[in-house]
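Q: Here's a chain of 273 amino acids. Please give me its 3D structure as tokens.
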Amino acid sequence: MNSTQLDSDFGHAGGHPSVARMDPDSPEFKVASRPVVSYSGAQQNELLAALPRDVLESLFEHLELVALPFGKELFEYGSKLENVYFPTTSIVSLLYVMEDGATTEIAVVGHEGVVGVSMFPGERAMCSAVVQSAGYGYRLKAQALRDCFNQGGALPQLLMRYNHALFAQMAQNAVGGRHSSIEQKLCRWLLDRLDRSASNELKVTQEMISIMLGVRRESITAAAGKLQDDGMITYRRGNITVLDRAGLERYAGECYKVAKTEYDRLLVDVAGC
């Protein structure tokens, strides 16, 4: 998100004089002090961008632009799903945490998707969601999304198509976790981030990757070293630069291709909504 867009969505630093005279605890103050949602800003999320303009604008009074810092937990397993998040420049990991604390990433969501959708009041999360790459996103009360969903039209169709693509990613991750090599898993993991990042540089540690993939750190060190020797990436502490994306895709094979095909199909489908 560039500075122009931030200014557009957050408003001028000085604010409006009338806001300062309001009671900070009043509902009016809270509404007036919220960042203004712009049409162009909301379109940075591909699902929101795919909605007809009148449907998207009907959500503006409920949408809130929020900062999503690294490590922020949006919800945890078993918690009540009260908010929905549409990432724009942030990346969110969906994680399954075992009783012994072992963690495995089951899916990743960025500007192409949405996190925390619940179709029934009181529905509880089946996984945890943690911000893995800091940025921004739009937050919406789950009930507001349900109300809009129940009206029918483009939004329900869009969410159902997206859930199909997300399921394809989860299924492919499950299969890849059992049948793919460490190098293939690493390639897929890097490609998933590239698809949701603005550049070919990723700020990530080998420790984090090992946790997300559920493998030993030494295995990631060896796999990253091989990819670097093959000229596909360069790695410095806390930073990976992808030099040969096509090479990563070839190496990852089905471990990446199936889910990517479904997301590409989703973009084609929503273009016709």
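Q: Can you summarize the key feature?
A: The chain has two domains: 3-157, 178-263.
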